[in-house]
Amino acid sequence: MAELDATLERLRTLAEGGLEQATAMPPAIYRSAEFHELEKKEIFAREWLCVGLAADVPAAGHYLSFSINDQPVFVMRGRDGLIRGFSNVCLHRMMRLVEGQGSCQRLVCPYHAWTYDFDGRLLGAPHMKQTPGFEPRSHHLPAIRTEVWEGWVYVTLNEQAPPVGELLASLAPLVAPYQMQNYVSVALQDHVWNTNWKLLTENFMEGYHLPVAHRATVGAWMPIEDTRFPTEPNDHFTVQTFTKDETARYGRAHPSNTRLEGHHRYTTVMPSVFPAHMYVLAPDHLWYLSLRPKSLGEVHVRFGVALAPEVVANLPDLEKEKAELLAFFDKVNAEDRFVVEGLYQGVQAPLAKPGRLSWLEREIHDFTCYLATRLAGWRRSESLSRRQRAAS
After folding, report:
1. Assigned CATH topology for domain 2-47+171-386
2. CA torsion through residues 26, 7, 14, 225, sign
3. What is the distance in angstroms between the CA of the first residue and the CA of the last residue of the chain?
4. CA–CA gap between residue 58 and residue 374 (Å, rounded)
5. Residue of 116, 176, 183, 210 with fewest CB within 10 Å of its CB?
6. What band does 212 get if pLDDT is binned at 50, 70 and 90?
7. pLDDT in tens, 17-66
8. Closest CA to 197 of 75, 47, 331
9. Domain locations along the chain
10. What tens digit of pLDDT does each residue of 364-390 get?
11. Gap between the Cα atoms of 219 and 238, Å rounded
């Protein structure tokens, strides 16, 4: 506990110091088993987590599986069009009901064929009629709190968590012009990377590494000096914007796009919704990551891509475009995986020491403040008040 207390105190000190003195977080943040267990309890068991796009469950009976710590869950679109979340564990012998993404007419447990409707009700259980007092319709899969916001499906185990729309209210005006809820999903993949989840989260947030780590892919199209941070720091998300010039293969509005005007036609919004949902929202496409720690040094990575509807409508060969797009993002993800797995190796080193952050890494400090708020009892408002009093 002494080591954990020291790590939390260092985290609180980093948050308190503000961006002017900000450094990367200390190695213990990424390699401490105690810190990892605290994250699972205070963050992943309490926060809203992104399952994916509502477009990935397009019709009644379509489902998408997920997990919150050790709790398997799935979301499914009902016959009424609503998306609901449930425990992904059979009520009989606790077998996992579904895997990955798919669709069905009824949910049938692969162990003993207990069968559920789309609203979680148990419809039938073979060979149970002679069991005294057993009534299938009195059984119901435990519901998981689920909300859809701007086309994203979020779940939480915390019944007291404020609604997603309330937490992300100041992000809504930045993403609303793109109407991303209408984008067409073209890919969803699940991977496991050998790193700590926070290293991948931080890597996604900052553009400082783009000209180096991504020089063969997206780095050449992003003038990092044009990076902007359009919102004040807050406890729920951080966001940056950047533009794409005429040479960019992806990231500019299709000629038939009538939604976007002016700078929006070549501006990309890149939110990171705490703790672990990040996406790049461009006029012609979006791609995202949703992360869950598998262990201290392993992270479940959900990766998805969607295209603006006018892009899909004007493609002569959608399958060919999808293949080319995924091949491109495979390269981007390989570049990132090399970096974040190398970072995890680096933080194990006895001589590892965090350095000063660039102005381009402001969002890493935002993330530091988020962690300090959730884990170390730090409060942004109190800290700002103290700094304002000191300045006066």
Report:
1. Naphthalene 1,2-dioxygenase Alpha Subunit; Chain A, domain 1 (3.90.380)
2. positive
3. 38
4. 34
5. 176
6. confident
7. 988 889 999 999 999 999 999 999 999 999 999 999 999 999 999 999 99
8. 47
9. 2-47+171-386, 49-152
10. 999 999 999 999 999 876 555 444 444
11. 21
Phi-psi map region of 330: left, alpha, beta (phi>0 left; psi -120 to 50 alpha): alpha
Q: Can you read off the two tokens belonging to residue 35?
A: 């810190």
Contact of 113 with 93, CB cutoff 8 Å: no
Q: How confident is the model at residue 219 (pLDDT cuts 50, 70, 90)?
A: low
Q: Which of helix, strand or coil describes residue 265? A: helix
Beta strands in 296-343 (DSSP E): 298-307
Quick one: tokens of 130?
């002679």
- Residues in Cβ contact with 83 at an 8 Å cutoff, skipping those fewer than 6 apart: 54, 57, 75, 76, 77, 146, 148, 153
Joined tokens for residue 92: 């009989």
Those residues whose C-beta lies under 8 Å from the C-beta of residue 248, and which sit 6 or more positions away, are 221
Q: How many CA atoms lie within 13 A of 221 on its CB side?
A: 16
Strand-strand pairing, 71-77 and 237-243: unpaired
Structure confidence at residue 137 (pLDDT): 83
Supply the Cα-derived Rg of the chain in whole angstroms: 22
| CATH architecture classification, 49-152 | 3-layer Sandwich (2.102)
Lowest-pLDDT choice from 126-140, 149-163, 192-206, 337-351? 126-140
The set of residues, in sequence order, having a beta carbon less than 8 Å from that of 320 and lying 6+ positions away, is none
Categorise residue 240: left if φ over 0, alpha if ψ from -120 to 50, beta otherwise: beta
**Cα–Cα distance between 193 and 350 in angstroms, integer?**
23
Please, which pLDDT band fits residue 136 given cuts at 50, 70 and 90? Answer: confident
Identify the three-state secondary structure at position 70: coil
CB-based contact 278:271 (threshold 8 Å): yes
Instruction: Give the tokens for residue 335.
Output: 């570049």
- Whether the model clears a pTM of 0.90, i.e. scores above it, the answer is yes
305-360 residue pLDDT tens? 999 999 999 999 999 988 998 998 899 999 999 999 999 999 999 999 999 999 99
* One-letter amino acid of 11: L
